[in-house]
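Side project, low priority. Logging it here so it doesn't get lost.
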Amino acid sequence: MRKPRNIDTELKALADRARQLKERRVQQLGELVIATGADATDAETLAGALLVIAETADAGKREAWAKRGTAFFRSTARKRGDGTQGQPNGTFQLDGGAASA
């Protein structure tokens, strides 16, 4: 006979995992803002820039932004000696949210 599944426990574990992923995403976004120096920009300007990015449908612009972002992560990884290698989802790790010099 098969052991019955405890669906409530499985659902709780999935909900906990989803919460952890959301928290990590928010933390990494904050670390990215700090790493790029955007934390020196006022919130209204930063929000406006993000809205322009979200509203842009021009594939050429998006591709150029993606290339620039890739170059940023690669140059930062070289300076620090690490990067997305070994990260389970290709995310960029920072040291406790501190911007590198």
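Brief comment: Confidence is low (pLDDT under 50) at residues 83-88, 94-101.
Revisit when time allows.
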